[in-house]
Amino acid sequence: MAPTLATLQTGTQRQTVTVTDGSTLRGRLVSSGKPVPNAELVLTTHSRTSGTTFKEVRIGTNAKGEFAFTNVPPGRVWDVLPRMDSLAPKGLAAPVTYAATKDDGHEVNVGDIAARPAFTVRGRIVLADGTPIPAGMRISLTSERGTDRQLLDLPPDGAYEFKGVGPGIFTLMPAVKGYAARNADYGIEFLVEGNIENF
Fold first, then answer.
1. Cα–Cα distance between 22 and 73 in angstroms, integer?
2. Cβ burial, residue 26 (10 Å; 0-12/13-18/19+)
3. Edge-to-edge strand list for the sheet holding 188-192
4. Which of 15, 26, 93, 188 would be a feasible disulfide site paired with 172, CB 3.0-4.6 Å?
5. Who's near 7: CB < 8 A, 6+ residues apart?
6. pLDDT tens, 72-87?
7. 143 burial class (0-12, 13-18, 19+ CB within 10 angstroms)?
8. 9 in the Ramachandran plot: left (φ > 0), alpha (ψ -120 to 50) or beta?
């Protein structure tokens, strides 16, 4: 059954929450017209208003590049997003696709989602005192939608490389204990329109 959101009054009175079958949302992930198998896609509510979101759902593509999200709550707009870290080993990136579910039993076909050659973001984190990066420190790259990110361990020299990055707005967030990114308390926002070297 499709999940639902309900606001209930507390107390001893018994209350009923009705769930329904929901909708089905399907499509295909392709690159140059050929299917992209074994890629992970995420389904999230487009609205991020507190109290109105559902937990994200993940699913993989089959050998034909096809995917189907079942029991999707009706009456909402959704983001369908192929995950960066899933496509990075294939050298691909794909955009967010938007879809709306209307009624129970409704089937939405988003058609082909076209993955294209991805960009790479390379750079280096340096500490102000010149010391090596301590072990266990990380850096993340998050898309503007906030639901898709990559996470890397930082080596002692601070060099990093993110693959599978598509065009768009991203936030880079280094996490090094005892240090903060200069003038970027909430990360470094930047635009990706091609490969970025020495960021």
1. 5
2. middle
3. 149-153, 138-143, 168-175, 188-192
4. 188
5. none
6. 999 999 999 999 999 9
7. buried
8. beta
Contact 71, 22 (CB under 8 A): yes
Pair of tokens at residue 44 = 């999230």
Task: Give me the chain's average pLDDT, please.
Answer: 93
How many Å apart are CA 54 and CA 46, to the nearest integer?
10
Q: Are 63 and 37 in contact (CB under 8 A)?
A: yes
Distance in angstroms (rounded) separating the CA atoms of residues 137 and 177 = 7
As a whole number of angstroms, the distance between CA 67 and CA 39 comes to 10
Phi, psi of 91 (to 5 degrees): 75, 25
What pLDDT shows up at residue 146? 65
Contact call for residues 36 and 61 (beta carbons, < 8 A): yes
| DSSP conformation letters of 5-28 | ------SSS---------EEEEEE
pTM score of the predicted model = 0.85
